[in-house]
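In this notebook, the sequence line spells out the residues, with the fold written below as integer tokens. This is how one looks.
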Amino acid sequence: MNETKFISWLGRIASIIAVLMYVSYIAQIYNNLHGNYAAPLQPFVAGINCTLWSIYAYFKQERDWPVFWANFPGIFFSFITFLTCFHW
């Protein structure tokens, strides 16, 4: 397997794993909505991180789609988790 093909596959696999990482916030969102509140700092910082990486990947000269798609779902899942951490 040549390096270009390897890097392409690595980007796809890493993107899938990153999306799964942020989808795993669903369990914490569920717990937060049922009174088992978690600390809000980690999902808030993750949301900022995902936002910055998505902006970077989208606006660079040659768009970096694996980085963009790996972080874009994290924007929503992280900030939703953050918001549900509070006792409203």
